[in-house]
Structure formats: C-alpha cells, structure tokens
Amino acid sequence: MTQQEFQWMGRTIRYAGVAKAAQAAGRSVSSLPYVHRILLENLRRSQRAGRPVGERDIAALLEKGDAAELPLFVSRVILPDSSGLPALQDLAALRSAVDRVGGNVTAVDALVPVDLVVDHSLQVDFWGDAAAEERNLARELERNAERYRFLKWAQQAFRRLRIHPPGTGIIHQVNIESIASVVVLETLDGKEWAFPDFVIGGDSHTPMVNGLGVLGWGVGGIDAEAAMLGQAYIFPRPQVVGVRLSGRIRPPAMTTDAALLVTQKLRAAGVTGCMVEYFGPAIPHLTVAERATIANMAPEYGATCGFFPVDEQSLAYLRQTGREEDHISLVEAYCKVNHLWRADAEECPAYDRIVEIDLSEAEPSLAGPRRPQDRMTLAGIAEDFREKLTLPLSQGGFGAEAVEADPAEALPGHGSIALAAITSCTNTSNPAVMMAAGLVARRAVERGLTVPAWVKTSMAPGSRVVTRYLEKAGLLPFLETLGFNIIGYGCTTCGGKSGPLPQDVANAIERRGLVAAAVLSGNRNFEGRIHKLIRANYIGAPPLVVLYALAGRVDIDFDREPVGLSADGTPIHARDLWPTPEEIEALLPQARDRDLFSAVYGREAAGAAAWEALEAPAGALFPWDRSSHYLVEPPFFEGAAGRDPVADLAEGLSKARVLAAFGDSLTTDHISPSGEIPLDTPAGLYLADAGIAQKDFNTYVGRRGNFEVMTRATFANIRIKNALLPDVEGGFTRHFPDGETVTIFDAARAYRAEGAAAIILGGKEYGTGSSRDWAAKGTALLGIRAVITESYERIHRANLVGMGVLPLAFRAGEGWRQLGLTGGELFSFAGIEEAVRTGAPVRVTAKGEGGTVEFEAVPQLLTEAERALIASGGILMHVLDAFSPASGSNGMEE
C-alpha cells in the first residue's frame, strides 16, 4: 500500500488513502457509503501493518454479491462491567489454562486500548430523597466489593486496560462526551499516522457513538475478547441501507418521539443485520445530541449501526464537550483529506437500498407495553392497554381478571404506574429533552401538583454533566420536589436494576393480580426486564415520564383528562405543563458550556476514593477462591484435550430432545435475565443452599462471574413463555418422553444424564436485545448443541457460534409450527460434518407419536471464519490453541 501524507500543525501525518484504495479496485470513492470508506481504510492500513489482509478482502468489501468475511482490526474496545467482567474473567481463566500447559501467561494481554466503565451494577435501592445517590453508591460498593477487587487486579494485570470507577456515568454517554476521539493519532514505526476511531463495545447500544461520526457497534463479550487479544474481528460484509431523513421535528414532539418513529419504521423495513447510514435534508438541523438519541436505538430497529458521518455538527459537539482545539483541527483536516467529511447532507452514495423517513411525522408517543418498536401516540395508549388487559397470554394480552379500582389501596388498580424513571440510556445525553422534563416539573410544582405515593420515581443521568446543567438552569429542585432525585449514575431501571418496590405496593400487585405499569425514558421495555412485578412497560421522552408520574396511571387520555388538580381544585392538563420550544432553547446554552464538561471529566468520579481504597490482588495470575460465589473459574477450558469438536457435535446431535420452543422475538433478556434473582428459581435456590441470605443475592448482573448461577439462570426469566407449556410463564418445560413439568435447568441435566443432546426451537428474530454473552454461554453450559429458528439477531447468532453452539435456520416459509412439530419428538441430525465444512444443509428427522417429520435446516455460519470456530469448538478453544506451546505461536499480533 502506498501511504499518503498531509501537513497538520507543521507535522507530516501519514494515512491510508480511501480514494486511492477505491480507485485501485475500480471504484469511485464518491460511490461508497461512508461506513464502507471507514472499513476500507481499516483493511488498507492493516495490510500496510503486515496483518493477514489481502486484496480479496478489499474486493469482498467493494463488490456487491454473496456474503464475504472482512478481517477487521478495531482501534479500541469499550465495555460495561456487566459484559466486561466476564470477558476479563475469561482472559484470567485463559491465563490459568495457558499456565497449566506451560505457556507464556503474559502473552494473554490486551493489545488494543480497552475502556471498562463500571456502570451496570448500580441498583435503585434508595430513592426520593437527597441522600439516595450517596446511599446507593455505598450499597453498590458494598455489594460488589469482590467483583470490583477483581477489576482492580485486571487493571494492573492487563497493560492497555483502563477502568472508569463507579459513579462516572453510563458507558455510552461517557464515550461520546469524553472517551471517543473521532480520529486517532498514533506513532507507528516512528511515523505519525491518523486513522478513524473505530470501536466495538460489549453493550448493544455502542452505536450511540455513531451520532458523533465514530463507527462502532455492539458485539458479544466473546467477540470483544478476541479483539482485545489482537485477533482479527471477522465481520460479514453487511448491506448498507441509506435512510433519507427529511422534515423537521415539530413541537410538541421531541427527539425521543422521532427516535421511536425511526425505530418503528426501520424495524418494519427489515434492516436487521444491516448497517444504516443517515443522509438527507434533515441532517444539518440535527445536533449530535439528537443524532445520538436516534443512533442509540440501532439495536431496537435491528441494525448493526445507525451512522451519521462527520460534519460541522461533529466539530461543534467536540468543542462543546471540552475537547482540545488542536485535536478538533486534526479531526477536520484528516476527515476532509481522506474523504470522510460530509459537506453535502443530501449526497447519496450507492446504498444497497434507501428508506425514506419524514421526521415531521413524529408525535408525542410511547412504545410498549413489551417492545420498543411498538410505538403508539399518546391518544392510543389507554385504549390499547384496556384491550390487552383481559386478552389471554397466547394472544399477546395480560390474561388479567377485571378488578375494581380502589383508591384506598397502595396501588389503586390495573394500569397504575408503579415505576417512573428518567434513565441514563438514550435520552440523558440530550439536553433538550432533559430541560423539557425540568420545565414540566417546574410548572407542575408551581401549580401545586404532586406525584401519587404509589409511584416509585428516580433519575439516573448518564453523566454528572446532566446534574450540573440542571442545577445551573435552576430546574433540579423542581424535579427533586416531585421525587426525581438523582439516585446515581449508571444503567438502572432500563437494565432491570430498578430495585424494590415499596412493600405495600408489591403486596397489592401480588394479592390482587394487578397489571402494574412502568414508564421510563430508556430504550428497552421487554416484559420481565424492568421489574418482575411490572408487566406493562412503556418507553418515552423524559418530560412524558414526569407527566405520567403525576397522573399515576397509564390509561389516561391527556387530551381529555387532567393530569391532576391544583391545590384549589383547578384541573391541570398536559398542555398547561408542556414547555414551548423557545423556553427549551433559552436554557440550552447552560448545557453547552465546555468548562462544565472539562470540570466533570477533569475530576475524579464520586466513587473514585472508595474504589482506590479497595485492596486487590497483584500479579499476572488471578488467585481463584474456591469458596467464592461471585468469581468462579469458568469451565470453558476444561476437557478439550484430544477431542474432535465436529465429531463430538455430530455424535451428540444423533439423539436430541427439545429443551424449549419459542415464538417470535425471543430476547436475550428472556434467555439470560439481568435483574433480581428470585428465591424460587434454580439460581435463587442454589444461592440459598450455599447459605447466602436472599437480601444478599444481588442481581444476575452481579453474579455473572459465577457460571453455576448463570447456567441456572438461562431461560429462567419469570416472564418467558415456552410453547411446550403454553399456559405457564417462567423457566419451566416438559421433560420427554414422560411429559413431566420441570425447570429448564433440571430438564437439561436429565437429558445429559440420559445421553441426549438438548436443542432449542425458535421463531423469527431469535435473540433480539442486549449483546449478552451469557445468553450464549448459558445455552452452551446447559448442553444445548443446536438452535433452530426462522431468523436470528446478529449479535446473539455470532455469540452462539463463539460458544460452539450450531445455529440453524428453517427453510424460508417453514418453522417448527408450520412443520407440525410439537417439541415432544426425538430428533436426529445428519450431515453435520459437511455443514460445518461447507455450509451445506443439515438433514433433520423428528420422530414422535404423530409420526415422523423430515426437513432441512441451513447452518447460519456466514463466513469461513465462523465455520472454523465451530470446528474448533468455539472461540475460547480456538484462542487457547493459539496460546499453547504446541502451536508454535504466542497467539498475539502487535
């Protein structure tokens, strides 16, 4: 590759030229989507560095056609503690395994910069008062001290790992406000090189940084581990869908409403697994904060990313957030010289297809009660809730019995809001919607409105910057008066760590069978995720969260009914509280003060002192404690010697039973829950048997370092619906051939003892939601050897491959129901070896009481690299082989 140069501040900067690379391949750079330009730069620069990238890889990117694999080398990895700790735990276990076979343990290291933000362990234990933040942080540090000591060990053990302690903020907002550089400047072979800031993250909402012009997306922790170790991140060449945004967001709609509109339309347009790139006349009018709100929802519309190329708005945001002027000038100079700067928002490269979205169609909306793509305008919420209330579960309802509303009860009736949370993910990065929430609160307090006692209110900003500007604007006291006190900084209610409900409210829900509601400003509302007792969950803009909290119920028509009554009995309507665009705009300069960002990110986080006080082990090897119930050495590297993984897979699948069967849109939250650990579940009983009090169970996130807990948690979400038991919710199944009802964990153990493999049947969009590696790890540890569905979400499918579980798909138009399968059959699979070697279909035979069904299932192994991973038994075995002395390699690439 011929390097190119440009002058910046009197220095010669080298770069891998995108235009020349495209020209060499017979393409014009102007025809390439910007995401392809960044990937092309990555491939060309990697070629120059001597990495295993060839001309065929360049051609695979630039030529439309069959799926091809791209060997990418990312600039950095970013992780929350929820997926980061298990990833680092795997690396620690890998070091132990390498040590046992006499290898060089220090070769197992992070070769790219890794940022781990401790943000997913905060829980709303305390709320509604000024001490809530301090008390929640103290409880977090107490509850997770053992996990955090491990992270401190990892920080000294792995050379390019940086830990951001509790109290810093949520990973995505910290990323765009502080960590992301847009352009990286690095010295290679004594010369300065500039290249794009290209990141993968262990959280599915990593695409939020796309709003700044940084290409990044979420991966499972398994892929993140390989990238950290310097391995090529093998990525299938994606379709790029151009989304032309036109129109303006018209008040009273907010950016959140536009994001929900985009989510609904793109999910309907079928962009799953595609890269989305935005262009069109609306682009110049969208700030980075607004773009980030839309980009954050990429997992909800199913895309790999939702990318906004670098332009003047990107520079403005870097300036607002306190980045150095020299660096901002580098971003501009490099992006312009290397064709990564978008000067014309209506420029339309050669996208695979184009989707048109008019932002003026956005209206004040909520999405729910179970999925983020199910958007409804406010006028339709009440009617939809009432329709679903008594519908059976099988028809998408709640299957509830009618009850009379009782004002004397702790929770009056169906539809009463038990939780109202302004949460960190998606919206608190957007000052306009946060100022709007504060203005609604101010008007409500000035008119004497209060939030009903049964509503648990909380506010968890994505960074401490939000608190500062709400204080400067004089709005924080009004939010606090309504109970929206700061409870901490991190992923809480949106990720299932909403904490306990008041006991009298919880008792009323259980005693009367109430369908309680939650309203939050997050991005996910899957049933069973937010709180185990709350079945109707809605997401929307922060000011709407405040409005619904004041109303205390979700089945309200704001056009006709008042939010509440003032002290003198005057009805107060939503329109009386809603701010004007001019009022919001007048306050935004408070949030654009670069000194504010410099002050927040220039100081230690609130939890830094306690973090530093934690004592932690030192050395290259982690000292595993056999008595621990938080950090248990995982079993992934055991029993691998002398085994042929493909032959083992084929032998196992010669006799298989269906462990569970599911319909469409099964989420990774259903497969591997993140919130509270109920006592009456396999995981809860395991902890209780170990002598751990229920109050100390922590959450599933907190116990992700214990494979015994997480295996028992797999498919154990209390709201999961296994079609083998259509009238039962929770982690239960039927054991065959006797048909006995048992837990999924017990059935898996029984099948293993009987010498039968376990399989899963699913519908469309299997594995939507979070990039949760334990959804695949737990699947593998249950003894599940294959999953057969109609379609997969990208990250979970890749994670299954990474754990050596074979993902299969029914032929188009077929599914387990369409084929007449009941789940009670005995399955056998033929052609496994050929399927792994070439991707050929697998022949499946299912013998049951009703006869025999034969069909073909197509391996969802999209690249040669994925077939190699399955042949190795998964990525962890593949990496262990690379580090063993027999391989003749230290497994690493500098």
Summarize the SSE layout with pairings.
Elements: E1 4-8, E2 11-15, H1 18-24, H2 34-48, H3 55-62, E3 69-72, E4 76-80, H4 81-100, E5 114-117, H5 132-143, H6 145-157, E6 161-164, H7 171-179, E7 183-188, E8 191-196, E9 199-201, E10 216-218, H8 221-228, E11 233-236, E12 240-246, H9 255-269, E13 275-279, H10 288-296, H11 298-301, E14 305-307, H12 312-320, H13 325-337, E15 353-358, E16 365-367, E17 375-377, H14 378-390, E18 417-422, H15 431-446, E19 456-459, H16 464-472, H17 476-481, H18 503-512, E20 516-520, E21 534-539, H19 542-551, E22 564-565, E23 571-572, H20 574-577, H21 581-591, H22 594-601, H23 608-613, H24 645-652, E24 656-661, H25 668-671, H26 682-689, H27 707-713, E25 732-735, E26 740-743, H28 744-753, E27 757-761, H29 773-781, E28 784-789, H30 794-802, E29 806-810, E30 826-830, H31 832-838, E31 842-848, E32 851-859, H32 864-872, H33 875-883
Parallel strand pairs: 4-5, 4-9, 5-6, 9-10, 12-13, 12-15, 13-14, 18-19, 18-20, 20-21, 24-27, 27-28, 28-29
Antiparallel strand pairs: 1-2, 3-11, 7-8, 16-17, 22-23, 24-30, 25-26, 29-32, 30-31, 31-32
Helix pairs in contact: 2-3, 4-6, 4-8, 9-10, 15-19, 15-21, 26-27, 27-29, 29-30
